[in-house]
Amino acid sequence: MYQLFFRLVFTRMDPEKAHHLAFRWIRLAVRVPVLRTFLAAALAPRHKELRTEAFGLRMHGPFGLAAGFDKNAVAIDGMAMLGFDHVEVGTVTGEAQPGNPRKRLFRLVADRALINRMGFNNEGSLAVAARLAAREPVFRTVVGVNIGKTKVVPEADAVADYVKSAERLAPYADYLVVNVSSPNTPGLRDLQATEALRPLLTAVRAAADRTVPARRVPLLVKIAPDLADEDVDAVADLAVELGLDGIIATNTTIARDGLGSATDPSLVAETGGLSGAPLKARSLEVLRRLYARVGDRITLVGVGGIESAEDVWQRILAGATLVQGYSGFIYAGPFWSRAIHKGLAARLRTSPYATLADAVGADVKKAGKTV
Ligand SMILES: Cc1cc2nc3c(=O)[nH]c(=O)nc-3n(C[C@H](O)[C@H](O)[C@H](O)COP(=O)(O)O)c2cc1C
């Protein structure tokens, strides 16, 4: 039914308007107690065998919502109601900013992909921190907060901008993510170079510890799929050295590989990050490489091109403890998480592994490639 609705209604609307419309419905539904209870029971049934623990946090399952969908932390309960086991809000920047001019989000329907150059449109760290502070959770879910650099802040002052966000947001974050991988903020991805990344992560770690002395807020870094393999290794080594809690692989790509001929070349030529099905192979490759390098020393989060339970399972075998999705949700609709959970539970039952944790990295270990 969603497919029909998507084809008849959403594909005729501007993608960003369709996003806001769907978002409004989710937020409205969660305000009506009977409706949200019914929807959560229907869309987010819990499978005991999928219970997951990552960086000391307990979750109903391994599958969460990737950053960028709920940039301002306005729909955490709505997304939990739809079955996401964790919700990563943001990217939030130090200061509020409008993002790039519209039109900045494009659907490549034949490729089940999106291109976006949103440019971190968000209300800024002060407003999002106030919203999180005032939040009265309806559903118990893990909330990650993803932070990035304000566009007008010069690269030389990037660390201070991230620190400002970390200080304001860490108290409300179950985990914190340093995003250095979005292609739509000039210079941002240069922060992935270890000379820039080391002081940045060290300063954000210190800021989180300073502002939340009672709890160690897990800190993760999110990387791009466009890094050369040696640079992936360098980030992995740095993460181990700094005692980081996790790495999220990957963000969107600036490459245009894997697109079919049915997609209009003018769409392919749009500037921005490509996500969805064409990103699947590279994201999986980066994840596998990371796991071979860090093993179980650091928690890995797999994201990029997830469409099905089988995709999630493959990421787990490649080393992911948690898996996230964004574009697949746009194409599959509200029953997506439910289908993933159901399929994943069935996959685990027919596998040689007793728990999901046992399956993490199994393919890489089998190949004898772990540290
Ligand atoms: C419209 C859009 C906006 C996004 N915004 C962010 C963002 O603000 N911060 C971030 O870390 N990732 C952002 N992402 C990247 C996603 O979190 C994810 O890493 C990427 O889309 C790959 O996953 P997918 O193929 O399941 O979409 C965005 C993706 C899309 C499609």
TrEMBL record:
Its main location: membrane. Its EC number is 1.3.5.2. SUPFAM superfamilies: FMN-linked oxidoreductases. One of its GO terms (molecular function) is dihydroorotate dehydrogenase (quinone) activity. Residues 50-348 form the Dihydroorotate dehydrogenase catalytic domain. Belongs to the dihydroorotate dehydrogenase family. Type 2 subfamily. This is Dihydroorotate dehydrogenase (quinone). It comes from Streptomyces shenzhenensis. The gene is pyrD.
